[in-house]
Write a structure and sequence with these properties.
Elements (H helix, E strand, L loop, with lengths): L1 H13 L1 H22 L13 H12 L7 E7 L8 H12 L4 E4 L14 E8 L8 H9 L8 E6 L10 H18 L2 H25 L9 H29 L4 H28 L7 H32 L6 H4 L16 H11 L1 H15 L8 E2 L11 H13 L7 E6 L3 H16 L4 E4 L3 E2 L5 E8 L6 H14 L6 E5 L1 H35 L3 H26 L15 E2 L2 H29 L4 H29 L6 H33 L8 H6 L8 H6 L13
Parallel strand pairs: 5-11
Antiparallel strand pairs: 1-3, 1-4, 2-3, 6-9, 6-10, 7-9, 8-9
Helix pairs in contact: 1-2, 1-9, 1-10, 2-7, 2-10, 6-7, 6-20, 7-8, 7-10, 8-9, 8-10, 8-20, 9-10, 9-17, 9-19, 12-20, 13-18, 13-21, 17-18, 17-19, 18-19, 18-21, 19-20, 19-21, 20-21
Length: 723
């Protein structure tokens, strides 16, 4: 591996003009594909095979007029006043005239008026699904009733859900990343080159993703997740390879040789670090959830592109930059082997490595106890798909949600739909009547509306209003009890659906898939790290450290986003359950990133050890040489992920926060403190591998031992490298 990447690095450096031209051509082709074939994203979260999804599929066949998107208009009279049919009629009329609307139901005819007569709900049914609603239709719906005087009119429902977009807040993360790169490298050229390299990879990945969006159904969060990860790992991988390139330049190698050696050693670590991220993301497919699979594969493809860019485009760009990647004052110090490398043993990384070596037992105990304490709130974690009640205060959906709650109660925001089919109109009518009676007698149900039937009379719909809100634990209990009660309706198929039921089914399906996913991803990655480090204990230590990271991350996220502690710091208006796919997504992403830092840090320890250094001294050397890179990479990732915390979308906000805090914990506590402490305690035993296993495992040589042995180092013949 090291020799292959060494040759690739030298070739890219030598043929830099052609490599750059090829990447520019690829960007142009992908950009053209994105412009020509880009399709809309979807906000649907569904899982085939669940009861709620089966009911929706049945509706699309038997009751198509009820299968389209819905909107809700909430009308309120001034305080102390009441609504009249003539006052509400203009709003209903304007809603019915919105393009694509099948019907707008008069609230007085549907008895959707509050007891005090002050509030009314107008249900609006569209012909197409939510993904087929155009911006023009959405804007016309939003304006319905706006001209009616003396009434408060709010517009909500699924068609008012916005698609999250990248805005100015994410630019802050990139700006912080650029600042960290400048401080780390001391060179604007090196910082700009590293950032540009990452942006090329992200641009290629995003363009390719949107080029496929017309044939692959993408959730609205998939491109954001791909952007998050692609940008973060792209900067990190380029940072790692560039740092090693600068080290080799300072050691007296010429540019081409330094690029080749950097690709062969640091590049090998990047390949396997990227492989762990790709495995973790692609492994999301085991959950059997289509939207989650697409999210994982989209992000995995972007990470794979970041690796490819770092191994090909980066050496080419290094060729254009030359020694300008070094600070100006250090360029004149780049010498032949007769002079020692610039700045080795005196850096903060070496001092930190020696501190951890001396205090390894206290560091280990304090780190483990502290992370376990942070994980305590996990025991109260609740999961659900977010509803309008968690959206930003002032957004249309949130205003409609709050006004509905004020006038009717939270349950009206979590409507359920019972679908009854019995083959014949008579049997369906009888089954619907019996089903309505069973549901009405269920605890937690506020009311059941009269059944609506399709044209054939073979399918009936029952609107069910629970007493509690969509994400309440009590509503979940009510849904399960309803399903148990209606399961025995003789001669009829009865299923419960609606956005609330879909959310419950999605959460339960993901919770059931989580243990399987965790075992698969951790198991495969432990095997991969065993190949990389040829050790039993190092991969196990890495996995255990990750469990501490994920526990503390979940604990902090629950404390803020669910329990509301310090919620104002992240701009969270209303705490609530965590989005149901956050745990499985967070485990996949954080495991991959944690293994990134493990590979970056421990690969240098392994490299020094196989080259003859003492086991404990190699730990100090690994922390000394790569600790600064790991901490800089962690700060950059935290900045990139942190930029997404300020987005108004609660899903993106929670994902960005959890990733940012997880990276901080893993890099600064687990990898920079616990890992060196454990490695010092283990000593040579850390690199133990049973003989039979050693003979079976292939030697991947990521530390470049074979490269150093088979290909002699080529250095600058002159005493000083020209700048």
């Amino acid at each position: 591996m090291a020799i292959l990447l060494y040759r690739l690095g030298r070739l890219s450096f030598r043929r830099r003009g052609r490599v750059l031209a090829l990447w520019l051509l690829l960007l142009a082709l992908l950009g053209g594909g994105a412009a020509a074939f880009s399709g809309p994203t979807t906000s649907k979260f569904s899982i085939p095979g669940t009861e709620s999804q089966k009911a929706l599929d049945s509706l699309s066949r038997e009751f198509p007029q009820a299968g389209g998107a819905t909107g809700t208009i909430v009308v309120a009279a001034p305080e102390g006043g009441t609504l009249t049919p003539s006052a509400v009629a203009p709003v209903t009329k304007e809603a019915a005239e919105v393009p694509g609307v099948l019907a707008a139901v008069d609230p007085f005819a549907a008895k959707a008026v509050s007891r005090d007569g002050r509030y009314a709900l107008i249900q609006v049914q569209f012909a197409s699904g939510v993904d087929g609603i155009t911006d023009t239709q959405r804007e016309a719906f939003r304006k319905a009733g706006a001209s009616v005087a003396d009434l408060r009119v709010e517009h909500g429902g699924e068609i008012m859900r916005g698609v999250p977009e990248v805005g100015s807040t994410e630019i802050i993360g990139v700006a912080v990343a650029a600042l960290v790169l400048v401080l780390t490298f001391g060179s604007l050229v090196a910082a700009g080159m590293t950032l540009l390299n990452a942006l090329v990879g992200v641009a290629a990945g995003m363009a390719g993703l949107f080029a496929l969006s017309s044939t692959v159904e993408l959730t609205s969060t998939a491109p954001i997740l791909a952007l998050m990860l692609g940008l973060a790992v792209g900067i990190d991988y380029a940072l790692f390879i560039t740092s090693r390139y600068r080290h080799y330049l300072a050691d007296g190698m010429d540019g081409e040789e330094a690029a080749g050696r950097a690709a062969g050693t640091a590049g090998s670590a990047v390949v396997f670090a990227g492989a762990t991220v790709v495995i973790a993301l692609a492994g999301l497919a085991v959950a059997g959830v289509p939207f989650l699979t697409v999210m994982g594969l989209a992000a995995a493809a972007t990470v794979a592109l970041a690796v490819l860019v770092s191994l090909t485009l980066l050496p080419a760009v290094l060729g254009f930059a030359g020694t300008r990647v070094l600070p100006r004052k250090r360029r004149a110090q780049v010498r032949t082997p007769a002079s020692p490398p610039v700045g080795t043993e005196a850096g903060f990384g070496f001092r930190w490595g020696r501190i951890v070596a001396r205090l390894r037992v206290p560091a280990l105990v304090l780190g483990v106890v502290g992370l376990c304490a942070l994980a305590l709130p996990v025991q109260d974690m609740r999961l659900a798909l977010p509803d309008a009640g968690t959206e930003a205060v002032g957004s249309p959906n949130r205003e409609a949600y709050d006004l509905t709650t004020e006038g009717f109660g939270e349950g009206f925001n979590g409507r359920l739909v019972a679908v009854v089919s019995a083959g014949t109109p008579q049997a369906t009518a009888a089954a619907a009547e019996k089903t309505a009676a069973l549901i009405a007698d269920t605890g937690g149900v506020l009311t059941v509306a009269a059944p609506q039937t399709n044209e054939k009379g073979t399918t009936a719909l029952l609107a069910v209003i629970p007493e509690t809100g969509p994400t309440s634990a009590a509503t979940e209990d009510t849904v399960h009890e309803i399903r148990d009660r209606v399961a025995d309706v003789e001669g009829a198929a009865v299923s419960l659906t609606g956005a609330t039921a879909v959310g419950i089914d999605v959460s339960e399906k993901l919770a059931a898939a989580l243990p399987v996913y965790l075992l698969l991803v951790v198991g495969l990655s432990v095997l991969l790290l065993m190949l990389v480090f040829r050790s039993i204990l190092v991969p196990l230590k890495a996995a255990l450290g990750f469990l501490l990271t994920i526990g503390a991350t979940f604990g902090i996220t629950v404390a803020i986003f669910q329990n509301g502690h310090l919620a104002e710091l992240v701009g969270l208006d209303t705490p609530g359950p965590l989005v149901s796919f956050l745990p499985i997504l967070l485990i996949g992403i954080l495991f991959g990133l944690a293994m990134d830092y493990e590979v970056f840090l421990v690969s240098r320890m392994r490299e020094d050890f196989v080259h003859g250094a003492d086991a404990r001294e190699s730990v100090i050397s690994g922390v000394g040489h790569n600790g600064r890179v790991v901490t800089a990479a962690a700060v950059i990732m935290t900045a990139v992920f942190g930029g997404f915390v300020f987005m108004p979308d609660p899903i993106i906000k929670s994902i960005g926060f959890a990733l940012a805090i997880g990276v901080l914990i893993d890099a600064f506590v687990v990898r920079m403190a616990l890992v060196p402490a454990v490695m010092h305690l283990l000593g040579r035993a850390a690199w133990w591998l049973p003989g039979p296993v050693d003979r079976v495992l292939p030697d991947l040589d990521i530390e470049g031992e074979r490269l150093q042995r088979e290909i002699p180092v080529q250095r600058e013949p002159a005493e000083l490298v020209k700048t």
